[in-house]
Every structure is written in C-alpha cells, then in structure tokens.
Design a protein that fits this description.
Elements lengths: L14 H22 L5 H38 L1 H22 L1
Helix pairs in contact: 1-2, 2-3
Length: 103
C-alpha cells in the first residue's frame, strides 16, 4: 500500500526553490561584478570571473546532489513507510527531550 500526500510539503519550502534562489543570488552577484568590474585591472576581472564560475558550478553540484538525495529518501520512505514514520517519531522525541533539558 502506497500513501501519497500531495500537500505534505509546501512548494515554497521545497529544496528546489532554495537552489533556484541560490542561483538567483549567483546571477545577481555576477551582474554586480560586471557592473563594478569595469574599473578593475584585467587580472582582477579574470579572478572575479573564475570565482563566479566556481560558485555557479558549486550551485549546480548542490542542485544535483539535492535532487539525488530527495529521490533516494522518497524511494526509501515509500518502500518502508511505517519504519520511516517510527524513526522520524523517535528522532523527534529525542530532539524534544534534549531541547527541554537545555531550557
């Protein structure tokens, strides 16, 4: 038996939206670098461009890893729904106890 809850996770809080927002930040940084980079020396412009490219590549890597992890977790949860719920409940209980002790 497979359960599917469409609205369990809101679309606003999705991991893909987070990665998309991160890519928008990178694009904004790139535009800012282009606007302010005109007054920089050529070597500094090249360094700035290479760092932005590394940042973009890092974002792409994070996006791929997040998607792969989400698919793997989804597969495990669908395969073992009751065990997953029990483990989640256990971790939540432990976290609650620890937080209560800290206060």
């Amino acid at each position: 038996m497979e359960l599917y809850y469409r609205d369990l996770i809101s679309e606003d809080a999705s991991l893909e939206k987070l990665v998309d927002d991160l890519m928008l930040v990178v694009q904004g940084a790139e535009e800012f670098a282009e606007a302010t980079g005109a007054g920089l020396a050529k070597e500094h412009q090249e360094e700035l461009a290479s760092r932005l490219e590394r940042l973009k590549e890092g974002c792409r890597h994070i996006q791929q890893q997040a998607r792969a992890t989400a698919l793997a977790v989804d597969k495990v949860i669908r395969q073992y729904p009751y065990s997953s719920a029990g483990i989640g409940f256990g971790f939540g209980l432990i976290a609650g106890i620890l937080l209560k002790r800290l206060r």
